[in-house]
Amino acid sequence: MSGTNAWTRSRERMRLFPELFAQCAGEAATYGKCVAATTTGRQELRKDMCAKEFEALKTCFTNAAKRKAK
Length: 70
What we know:
- By secondary structure, the chain is mainly alpha-helical.
- 73% of the residues lie in helices and 0% in strands.
- Helix 1 crosses helix 3 (51-69).
- The radius of gyration is 16 Å and the shape is elongated.
- The chain starts with 5 loop residues before the first helix and ends with a helix.
């Protein structure tokens, strides 16, 4: 059997997370602010309330991961 399995790949991705997160700090902060502002008081976070901010964060992570893979 190969030494590369799902658990090995998963652990490797998790090891990269802090570096990728650092590259997307601005997008993460914007998304976090949206979630915090949306859930003030008794409001509940609903699907797609911060979709634009989430998509920006997701795109940043994807691009950072692609750059790291090179």
